[in-house]
Amino acid sequence: MSNPPLKAVSLTHVRYEKGDQLGHFLAWVSLVPIFITFGGFVSHFVFRRELQGMFFALGILVSQFINEFVKSSVQQARPETCALLEICDSHGWPSSHAQYMFFFAMYFTLLSVRKAAISGGKNSASNSKWILELVAWALALLTLYSRVYLGYHTVAQVFAGAFLGIFLGAFLNMIMRELREKMWLPRLISSALQPPEIMQLILQKLKW
Question: Could you identify which of 44, 92, 109, 182 might form a hypothetical disulfide with 53, taking C-beta atoms 3.0 to 4.6 angstroms apart as the criterion?
Fold first, then answer.
């Protein structure tokens, strides 16, 4: 009896040609979504526990769910190099890595812009986030390039993921902001159970 074929988790399944230093670097770049998820969001929840971070993480989960739904619906094959990478049994359009990173960059940029508008641009922490925004977009572009260079996606597949990530980042940011401001926040403000001091603290925590 032959053994059943093995399947790797696509999000962490990264290969590169032995001796290719650029490929080695780009393989690590492809793992940036993992570092963001576990290094960024988990530590944020543990140490800060802000609703803003929870909304952000929820948006990424929704984005990735949409990506899997679109992939299974379109069922576009990966490039011919998929045989060497042993991933031909999975679909390639749109690229989940590109969508993840461009969603992250777009959502984070909108958060920073809104927070800077609230603070009037005088907050040093808000000013430093402009640098982080550039880093986020640079990593998104590197991830996009890495998926093509390593043979996991075609150019069309990574650009589809990038555009979908940007669109969902802007759209879900708007939805989350509307839900927070028009549904939850008025309910908290009208509650007689919260003393004024606690309400002020909650309002400060919810500012974007």
Answer: 44
In whole numbers, what is the pLDDT of the chain averaged over residues? 75
Tell me the two tokens of residue 14.
Answer: 């990264």
Let me know if residue 121 belongs to a domain: yes
User: Whats the size of the chain, residue-wise?
Assistant: 208
- Of 2, 3, 9, 146, which Cα lies nearest the Cα of 89? 9
Q: Looking at the domain assignment, is residue 16 inside a domain? A: no
Between CA 111 and CA 83 the distance in angstroms is 41
Quote the CA–CA distance of 95 and 75 in Å, as a whole number: 12
List pLDDT tens digits, range 160-207: 999 999 999 999 888 877 776 665 555 544 444 444 544 454 445 445
State the total domains in the chain.
1
Asked if the structure places residue 123 within a domain, the reply is yes
Q: How confident is the model at residue 65 (pLDDT cuts 50, 70, 90)?
A: very high
CB atoms within 10 A of CB 199: 13
- Burial (0-12, 13-18, 19+ Cβ within 10 Å), 40: middle
Q: Let me know if residue 57 belongs to a domain.
A: yes
Pick from 147, 46, 45, 53: which is nearest to 101 by CA?
147
Q: What's the confidence (pLDDT) of residue 95?
A: 92
Count CB-CB contacts under 10 A for residue 136: 22
Which residue range is the domain that position 37 belongs to? Answer: 21-206
Q: Is-contact 107 176, C-beta < 8 A?
A: no
